[in-house]
Write a structure and sequence with these properties.
Elements (H helix, E strand, L loop, with lengths): L2 E7 L7 H13 L5 E7 L3 H5 L3 E3 L5 H6 L22 H13 L2 E8 L1 H11 L1 H5 L4 E6 L15 H22 L6 E6 L6 H6 L12 E3 L7 H15 L2 E6 L12 E5 L5 E3 L2 H13 L3 E5 L1 H6 L6 H19 L5 E10 L2 E9 L24 H7 L11 E2 L2 E2 L22
Parallel strand pairs: 1-2, 1-4, 4-5, 6-8, 6-11, 7-8
Antiparallel strand pairs: 2-3, 9-10, 12-13, 14-15
Helix pairs in contact: 1-12
């Protein structure tokens, strides 16, 4: 008899994570002899722990296909990290209880580095606690910081949004600079890795084009050098545009925008770098400025998603199911670049013990010698990832997105579970 599958989304959502969901669900439906029902966890792994499951078999083929053009997480996401087996065995006992009750033998977890760690732990349930289950990590993160894979689904669309936004903003500032704003700063995501900030550099395709300055987490902030570069750009071009990663660090290695709080994964809560830099420009250089924080807009912008990113997001969902059917566990579908021009790629298998808790940062040779821009090598890497458009359908001038019924599955364990704090 076919066993059922559990699929869930974790961490920050993206413009194309639902395409991976479609890849998982549509592919599983093509193998009814191996996989029964795909149950989605409402709000990630929390849905498994609290036995809050969604029956995806009740969704129409049209709505599942519609996930490919719908942003955010269709089933809800979470920031919740499983502790080690020795620290909270009750969590794993609860997962086994729920999995047994619903005959779940496949586990697909769609997320970034912390999600890979969760998936690795689930893959070890057979060895550690006697419950065999095949666990496959479906990669996703706008931060583009997973190892082995050429890029991470979700990143290409954020990269496209950032590059488009700074180009458009640059034209705006240039037109007003004579008598008004001379400096514009756009803050983007990126805690330790500057991939998103680097993507803004794609817009600078000729001398003097925006952005003039990029600030990376990998390069310690030098206030004097930054101010000198801003001043030089204003004098040379009439204005200056900056893309700044939220994870920018000072000389002591401290986040310049750390708010003092932590998220559920234990990461520092960041935000507010752009106004800090803008105030610095005003105080030291006396230039009029504007700033913007892209925040959720950059990762929710399905209307301008990268076609390459969309195709890859679907492909890793599809490959995850095929790997499970082939008997694999504790692995992740990885995107392997096979050519640059034209860009070609395929899917290979990466072991989760080589993925979990490993962070891929920008190589130094992707950053210009002065630390303020990208190199040609970086441009060659990034450029294919934003290629192509796949617009959602529109009605009355607005994109049309799918909202699933998300019908709950009847609970069978007969008890509630209190989540660890």
């Amino acid at each position: 008899m076919p066993r059922n599958a559990f699929y869930a989304q974790s961490g920050g959502v993206t413009a194309v994570i639902n395409a991976s969901a479609a890849g998982v669900i549509e592919t599983a439906r093509r193998y009814p002899e191996q996989i029964g029902t795909v149950y989605a966890g409402r709000n990630g792994i929390i849905g498994a722990l609290t036995e809050d499951l969604i029956d995806t078999s009740l969704e129409s083929a049209e709505d599942i296909a519609g996930l490919k053009h719908t942003p955010s997480g269709a089933f809800g996401s979470c920031r919740y990290k499983l502790k080690g087996f020795d620290k909270n065995q009750a969590e794993y006992e609860r997962l086994i209880e729920v999995f047994k009750a619903h005959d779940i033998g496949y586990f697909f977890y769609n997320g970034g580095g912390d999600s890979a760690d969760t998936c690795l732990k689930i893959s070890q349930l057979g060895e550690k606690m006697g419950y065999p289950i095949q666990a496959i990590h479906v990669p996703k993160t706008v931060d583009n910081d997973l190892p082995i894979t050429d890029c991470c689904p979700g990143f290409g669309s954020v990269a496209k949004y950032v590059a488009v936004s700074i180009r458009e903003a640059g034209y705006d500032v240039a037109s007003m600079a004579k008598t008004s704003t001379k400096v514009f700063i756009m803050e983007v995501m990126g805690r330790h890795a500057g991939w998103i900030a680097a993507a803004g550099g794609l817009a600078a395709d000729k001398e003097g084009a925006s952005p003039h300055i990029i600030l990376f987490p990998e390069v310690k902030f030098d206030e004097a050098a930054f101010l000198a570069r801003v001043d030089d750009c204003v004098k040379k071009y009439g204005y200056c545009t900056v893309v700044a990663s939220e994870g920018l660090q000072n000389e002591a290695g401290e986040f310049m925008s750390e708010a003092g709080s932590k998220d559920a994964f234990g990461h520092a809560q960041l935000g507010g770098l752009a106004p800090l830099l803008a105030q610095l420009v005003k105080d030291k250089l006396k230039y009029k400025y504007h700033w913007a924080v892209a925040d959720y807009l950059q990762r929710a912008a399905r209307h301008i998603a990268s076609k390459t990113d969309l195709d890859q997001a679907y492909a890793v969902g599809k490959a995850a199911v095929e790997m499970a059917i082939a008997g694999k566990s504790g692995v992740m579908p990885a995107i392997i670049r096979t050519g640059d021009n034209p860009y070609t790629w395929n899917i290979a298998e990466a072991r989760l013990d080589q993925v979990a808790n490993v962070e891929k940062k920008m190589p130094r040779d992707f950053i210009s010698e002065d630390g303020f821009h990208i190199t040609d090598k970086c441009r060659r890497y990034l450029a294919p990832l934003i290629m192509g458009e796949d617009y959602p359908p529109y009605f009355n001038g607005l994109p049309v997105y799918v909202q699933l019924k998300n019908t709950p599955v009847a609970k069978k364990t007969g008890r509630e579970f209190v989540l660890a704090k």
